[in-house]
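DM between two lab members

TW: hey, do you still have the SpoIIE family protein phosphatase entry open?
JB: yeah, one sec
JB: this one, 731 aa:
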Amino acid sequence: MPTDLQALRDLEHVGLGAPIADEAFDRFARLVRRHLKVPAAVVYFVVPEGQVLAGASGMPEPLQSKRLLQYPGTLTTLIATRAEPLVLSDARLDPVLRDCYLVREMGLVAVAGYPVFDLRGRAVGALCAVVDEPREWSEDDRASLADLAAACTAELRLRAERERARRIQQTAVRANRRSRFLLSLSEAFANANTMDQVEAVIVEVGTAGIGARYCAFAVADADGRGITYRSLVHAEPQFPQRMRQAKLDDHRPVSEAARTGRPLLFRTSDEMLSAFPALTDLCDPGVGARAFLPVVTAGVVVAVIVLAWERDRGPDKDSYALQTGLAHYTGHALERARLLEERRESAKTLQRAMLSRLPEVPHLDMAATYSPATRSDQIGGDWYDAVAVDDDATMFMIGDVTGHDMRAAAKMGQLRSLLRAFAWSHDESPSALLSLLDKANAGLGLLASGTAVVARLERVAGSYQLTWSTAGHPPPLVLREDGSVERLSVQPDMMLGVRPTAKRTDHVTTLHPGDTLLLYTDGLAEQRGTTPDQWLNRLQKTLGVLGDTATAALPVTLVRRLASDEQRDDVAVLAVRVRAASPSGPPSPGRPATAERKLAPSLCDVGPARIWVDDVLESCGVPMPLRRTVMLLTSEALTNAVDHGQAPFTATVEVDMQRLRVGVRDSSTAQPELRDPTVTDFGGRGVQFLERLASRWGVDRHGEPTTTQQRAGRRGSRRTGKTVWFELDLH
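TW: and the structure you got?
JB:
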C-alpha cells in the first residue's frame, strides 16, 4: 500500500477512490479474460479501506457488485508495494502467500499481476489475471498483461492530466474572478468619500457581488463600548428596531465579531441560534446562512458587515475570500472617509468662524446661509456680513473671492474683516467703502480678486432707503410685499483687485414694510451653457414662488431648489425683510396694540398670515423665544380654520402689557375637539398644542357674549360662526 497521501488524493480527484465500477477499467479486465482465457481479471487500486476494484470481470459475488476487497492480505499488495510484476503458477506452494486470505478463503491458485502507475510514477494499483487452478504463464501471456497494464497506466495518467488541467482552469477562473472582484471593489470604493457612500457600496457589493440577499452595516460607537447599525433598510426582514444598537459585551453575533475581531460564519440559521439562543424569537426563520465580518483598521474593529442568504450555505473558500476582501477594502474606505470628514468639519469650523453672526435689528428680519462646493474642502471665497451702524442704519455686504479652496478662504477672511472694520468705523456710502477696500487690498499686498455688493439700509419716515454699490457682482433682488420680484439691475463697477482707483457709484431705491432684499453669489443659480440673463430669470421666478416662505427659511430653501447636488461653486445668500409694524403702534399702559388681517380661503395664505402675526409681535417688543411658540400655535389655528371652517376668515392680534392674544375667526359653528391621535394619524394634534403650550385658550361662539365681553359685563352682538383664540402671558 502506498504511503504517499498525495497519491490517495489524486485517486480521489480522478474518481477512483470509491468502490464504483469504472467502464474503462472494466473493459481492460474483459480484454484480459478473453485474451488470456482466464476465469477472472481485475484492475484494482489500493486505498486505506482495502482495494477498490475499478475494473472486474468474472469475480465472484459480492466482489463483482460491491467492488471493494477489504481483506486482500499480502498477495496483491505486494505488486503495488514493490512496484514489480508478480507471476505465480501456484500460490499455495509459496510459504509466505499460502495463508493469504485470497488463497485460503477465495481459492485463488495462479495469479499474474502487473503494477499500474500514476502521473508521478507511483505504483497505486495493479492489473491481475487470476485462476482457480495451477497454470504456467507463457511469455505471450506476460507480454499481453504488461501491455494492458501499460494501457491502464496511460488511462490513469490521462485522467490525472485532465483533472489537473481542470483544476488549473478552475483555479485560474477563481483567481480571475477574485481579481475582477477586488478590482471592482477598488473602483467602487474609490469615489466613496462619506459614510453614506461607503455604506451604499457595501450593500451593492454584498448583494450583487457576493450574492447575499440582505446586507447591513454596523459602525463602532465613538466611546468604544457599543456598535450601531447605520441603517436597517437592507437588513434581513423582521429585524427589530430596538436591536439597532448593541453593547460589545452583549451575547449577540455582531457584538462578538466587534469584540473579538474574528469573523463569524453560520451555514444555517439553526447553527447561529444554537450559539446565540437569545435570538430565537428575533430572527427571520426564512433566512439561512449568515456572516458577520469585522472591519479592522489600525488593529481596532471599527465596523461589522452583516450578510445574510435565504438558503443554507456550506463552507466556500472562494466566498470567504471575497467576503474578507470586502471587509479589507471597507476598512480602508472608512479610514479615508473619516479623515475626509474630519477635514471637512475643520474647514466648516473655520468657515463658520469667518462668517459673523447677524445682528438683531428692530423691524428687520434677517437670515443667511453658506453652502460650499461639494468637490472642494467645504470652504471657499464666498461670504456675507451685516453691521448695525446705529439704531436707524445697517450695512449689508456679500462677496465672492476668486477660488473655492483654503487659499480663497484665507483671502476672503482678510477682505471681510477689512470691510467690516471700514463699515463700523467710517460713516461712508457703500461706494466709498468699496473704494477703501480695494485700495487696502492693493496697499497691504493681499492682491485678492473678486466681486462684492455693499448696501446701506436706513429707516426714513416709515420706510427704508436702500443705497447700494456693486463691484462686478450679480444684481440684488427685491421680493416685494405683493409677491413681485424686482431686479436692481445697474451698470456694475469694476470688480475688486483690478484697478484700485476705479470710480464707484451708489444707487438708491426704497423698501417698504413686507419687502425682502436678497443678496447672493453667482453659485446660487448660475449654470453652464446659460446666459446671465437666463439664470437670473430662473432665480427671480423661484424667489417669486417662495413669497410666503419665512425669512429664516428663505436662503436655505433657495439653495436647495437652485443649487444642484454636484454643486461646483460656493454659495452665499443673505435675505433681509422689512417687518410690517402693528397699525396701532406698540402697546402702552391702558392701550393695547391691536391688528386684524383677512385670510384668503386657501392654505397658500397661511404662511403669509403667520409672518404677518410675527411682524406685529416683533413691533410690539415680544421676545423671540415666545414668538416661536406663538408661531407654532398660530399655524395650527390658521390651518384648522381653513381646513375645517368656512369663509370668511380673519386673524386678530392683541398685545397689552401683560399678555398677548391671537384669534382666528371663521363662519363655521363646528367646535374643535381635543383628541388623542395615534402615531399613524395624520392630524388631530393642533388642539393638543393649544392645551399644552398656551396659557389659556378657548372658543367664542358668535352670537353669544365672548369671554372678554363677559369680563366687561357687556352683551355681545348676535353673529354666526366662532373664534378660536389662545393667550400667552408676557411675564
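TW: got it. Residues 474 and 522 are 7 Å apart (CA to CA). The chain has 18 helices and 27 strands.
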